[in-house]
Amino acid sequence: MKLVKTSVKRPVGVIMIVLAIIALGVISVRNLAIDLFPEIDLPVAVVATNYQDAAPQEVEQLVSEPLEGALSSIEGVNTIQSQSQSGASLVIIMFENGTNLDNAMLDVRESVDQVKSALPEGANDPSVLRFNPNQLPIMWVGLTGSDTAKLQELAEDKIQPYFERQGGVASVEIEGGQERKIDLVLDRAAMNQYGVSSQLIQQALAGANQSTSAGSIQKGDKDLQLRVEGSFESVDDIANTIIQTPQGTKIRVQDVADVQDTFKKNGTTLVNNEEAVVLSILKQSDGNSVDVSNNIIDAVADLKEDLPNDVELEVVVDTSEFIKQSINSVIQNMIFGGIFALFVLLLFLRSVRATIVIGVSIPIAIVSTFVLLYFTGETLNILTMGGLALGIGMMVDSSIVILENIYSYRQQGYSLKESAIKGASELAPAVIASTTTTLVVFLPIVFVEGIASELFTPLAITISFSLLASLVVAVTLVPMLSSKLLSKAMKDHGRRYWFDRILNRVTNGYAKVLAKALKLRKTTIAVTIVAIIGSIALIPFIGTAFIPEGDQGQISITVETPTGTSEDKTLEVVGKVNDKLEDYKDIIDVSYVTVGSGDASSAVMSGGSEGSFTIQLVPQEERSTTTTAVVQELDEELSSIAGAEITVGEMSSGGLSSSDPIQIQLSGPENDVLMELSDQVITAIEDVEGVYIPSSSIADTQPEMNIHIDRELAAEYGLTYQEVMNQIQVGFTGQTVMQYREGGDEMNVSLIFPEDERSTINDLENLYIQNQQGTQIPLLTIADFEQVQSAATITRQNQQRQVNISSDIVDRDLGSVMQDIEEVLDSFHFPSDEYSYSIGGQAEDMVEAFSDLAVALILSIFLVYAVMAVQFENFLYPLIIMFSMPATVVGVLGGLFITGQPLSITAFIGIIMLAGIVVNNAIVLVDYINILRSRGVDRHEAIMEAGKSRLRPILMTTLTTVLAMVPLALGYGEGAETQQPMAITVIFGLSVSSLFTLVLIPVIYTYFDNLSERIKGWFKKEA
Predict the structure, then answer these.
(1) Do residues 364 and 21 lie in contact, with contact meaning Cβ atoms separated by under 8 Å?
(2) N or C: which end of the chain has fewer CB within 10 A?
(3) pLDDT of residue 178
């Protein structure tokens, strides 16, 4: 090949190109974004609407259903889900994979605009948002001190703007603290005395707090703009606002209301049981999590210098820490894997120089891969780095084959340059074909859809890049270095004779086994078939799983008190939980809890009064227990706390799936029936082994007092339905009447009655409703009252009511648990055909991913066969080589069974990788058998000679690949759990397959060769 000759004859040029690639690689690494997992671009849109103080049923009928109807006609919609809760509606539109979300968002906005006018008067304009699972806070920063109002002001005025100016930060949200507000607490007796209604007070305030332009006048040669300035400048201005009573008397607001300049709590936030204001940091969609975290940490250090002495600013939770630890673990495993691979080379080659010649392909291939990753826009994450770690052993395979052939020519008396050129040129086509078989297995992964493609396309690209780079190194740099460095290499001076003696024994032993296998061909095939069947029988004991997640050390605890419970009561329960957590202070790094958060989106997603804990454990190496074990122990410990439903769970490491492992979706028209069915399902699946704390989305109910207004009777008293409704709202929830601005800050001014006049049912019944003439009528006179229990949240999917039952799993694989649950549900008797169930969550994602990967595996096998057919210019020999694949099943299933790992998506990716790797050994063996036979050697002798002579390179390539993956297979370090099944699959699959290849492939070769001779003889007779 010209490339080989050029590289040998122009070493300076090759070296300069290598140095340029290294320089580009260093620059690329510094500019590559770092994340835990590749970003998943899900085609999902969200429509959020507030309908203040409306019950869930009203929100469903008046807001959610009209929106669902309008959105369902959009092209490409897969599923529409809605959640209706008191005062809020959330509609989630999931599109088909491959949908252009930018175009879909335009369609969503158009559909929402069409139905917006049909929404009730009290509903806000719907907000249309693009859902991005990666747009979650990457870190939380806590601000602690004695005065929460001061902390809130400090956070809003100084810290939040400064954080938002940092590179890569998208937004900063504030939780906890206090917000200033103006309450006008109405005096009912004074209002009765003056004949003033709440509407009249509202009109007076709105009319007085106004400024406007009034044209212009001339003064000399200038125009003066006229502006009537009437905006309130102080709280006293509000109190002194004049109200014109129906009787013509002028009174002031302070005569009928107590003007209170006070604070409203935005929930309670505790950091390590100390009240605080917490700022959550969201990164930009293309931001680097680690860089953003570093920028915020630097910003915290800068701000600390200017903060008051009694205020502390500290990072509470930093998710990038786990990212950095995981990437460092992968790098560490890569280094150890590389060392193991080089050790194998040193044993076989018996030369430091020869080892260096081959070993140099590893760093150059890695650096080249970084350059290619940069230009393809990929990130440095646990999967791309894991791809490099998995590929380290394979990076030297091509170089080993080339170097061995160069050495053989050197032994024949050729000069260094001639040996390098002839040896590399002769095997370059075979090496290219061998590498191509490994590469083509990844092509189908790029074309399949779903989460498997989203996550593992970067891994496929990384391994492909690294192998291509190592191939280029093998046919250019290795021949060039061999021509310069191997003058004294590999001469036998008696060094490492012990290893040669072991290798000779292995070779002689293999020759005896191969000779027997050729004599007992049927027995050899029968043993192989029995081994395959036996390994398949292990499948029920292995089970299936979605994606193994790393031990991030983060725990969530949800404390849910009955709907309507006061914040003080919820805080009381939270305090009991904190007391229990004191027993775990040696492994808890930080505990962060929010109670009664004012976040509307979180309110929609959760029902009832809620306290949410986020607990960060100390690093994995500093504790002797896993996060899962701590979760189970805490769950048992906290179950003794009464007055709330407490759920303990392990937080996901990176959000590979936002779903629970098990989700059962019950659909039907009636909430009451769905509630009853959900109770029955939960009772049934609780007995399934592995099911852990099943819960229902409809389990949370809220007490409601339904007020039925007699509209005809109200009309007789001169009242409209709207007037009655408004006065009830003012009486019990208050009503914001205007915005007051002071010092650049805006605050709400609200009308509300004293708390002791709006706390009981009696207060409600005796609420006086005032008509236009000033006459007051008790609400009880014109309304009936009915107390009921209703769902706190109403969930719908595809315009039908739905209840979701979700559960975690422990001590058992997902596939087995799901199979048992399906058996239980199949025996269920639903009331009618209108009611049904479906399986969702990670179980559904797992089934879809396995289906996609199965298609990818079949396509990969076909592509491998096609490449070999092109290489051999023959259909028969590739078919012989393909028989090395079935034996791989023995290693894969046996390895998973021995290590206790379920068959997960990552293990499946390892199987696809094996489809391209295991055939390489068979290619080397069959190719050399054919070469010997072409020289006139007898078939049996050719097989024996090829087996003995090819054993050495087969052992070298197998051992370098296997040992390089051992650190990953051991699962040491943060985040290693994700790649561990993949490494285990490749190690066991390749090891067992190599053994079968060395014995089985020669036997299959004889059978097919006999068949070929018979066919040729048959054609001769016909002729």
Answers:
(1) yes
(2) C
(3) 72
Average pLDDT over residues 903-920: 87
Q: For residues 350 and 290, what is the distance between their CA atoms, to the nearest angstrom?
A: 43
Q: What local confidence, expressed as pLDDT, does residue 375 receive?
A: 85
Give Cα 259 distance to the centre of its chain.
50
Tally DSSP H helices, then E strands, for the chain: 39, 30
CATH class, range 2-31+351-486+514-546+846-1015: mainly alpha
CATH level 3 topology of 188-209+216-255+703-791: 3.30.2090
CATH class entry, domain 134-180+276-322: alpha beta
Would you say the CATH fold of 44-131 matches that of 2-31+351-486+514-546+846-1015?
no
Per-residue pLDDT tens for 118-132? 888 778 888 888 776
d(CA 667, CA 141): 42
Look up residue 583 and give its amino acid. D
Nearest to 980 by CA among 916, 900, 907: 907
Residue-range domain boundaries for the chain: 2-31+351-486+514-546+846-1015, 44-131, 134-180+276-322, 188-209+216-255+703-791, 551-652
User: Burial level of 682, CB count in 10 A (0-12/13-18/19+)?
Assistant: middle
Return the CATH architecture of domain 551-652: 2-Layer Sandwich (3.30)
User: What pLDDT does 922 receive?
Assistant: 87
Render pLDDT for 646-700 as a digit per residue (tens, 0 to 9): 888 887 654 455 567 888 888 888 877 888 888 888 888 888 888 887 888 775 5
> Mean pLDDT score of the chain, rounded to an integer?
82
CA distance 423 to 407: 8
Among 116, 132, 135, 136, which Cα is nearest to 49's? 116
Scored b (16 or more CB within 10 A) or e, 574-599 reads bebbbeebeebeeebbbbbbbbbbee
Q: What is the mean pLDDT of residues 4-13?
A: 74
Which range, 40-44, 596-600, 723-727, is most confident? 723-727
* CA atoms 927, 928, 932, 938: torsion sign: negative
Instruction: Please give the Cα distance from 366 to 378 (Å, whole number).
Output: 15
pTM score, whole prediction:
0.77
Cα 464 to its chain centre, rounded Å, is: 24
